[in-house]
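Chain A, query sequence.
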Amino acid sequence: MDLPQIAEGSEHRVYLQADSARVFKITKPGLFGESYFIQDEKIFQKNCRPLEYLARLRLWKHLFGSAPEAHGVTSAGQIVSSHEFITGELPSQDEVDAFLIRAGFSPIRQKYWLWQKVYPRHQLRVELGDARDENFVKTPSGIVPIDVRLWAYNSY
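Chain A, predicted structure.
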């Protein structure tokens, strides 16, 4: 991509298109994030497939109203998405935790940044991982997630 790289996470690289005030995320080859699970009181993670990565973007949009938009796949199988550039400051972890509680989430393992939201009527549980302060931006309108991991399970 012929744009300046401004960040890099475990699963993607982030580029800035300044004239449109957008960031583009391109997954690293073969990496599409992780989901977490608890077994024997320990947290484990598993690599996600491309469809799970795309489902995360849809969940993100549904839950928070603003999420990266998927654009396509490169010839190397990397997913390309973009999102408006969000200006603001880094919130405190306490502010992020309060934001998640207001959004209907409850902690599963708060010190490991793992939260859940249960929808009993639909027998669905959405889990949110990597809810660290550095994955959110504090704006004048409130806190906005910019890099979270989401997945859903049938809860029954």
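Residues 5-154 form one domain. The mean pLDDT is 93.
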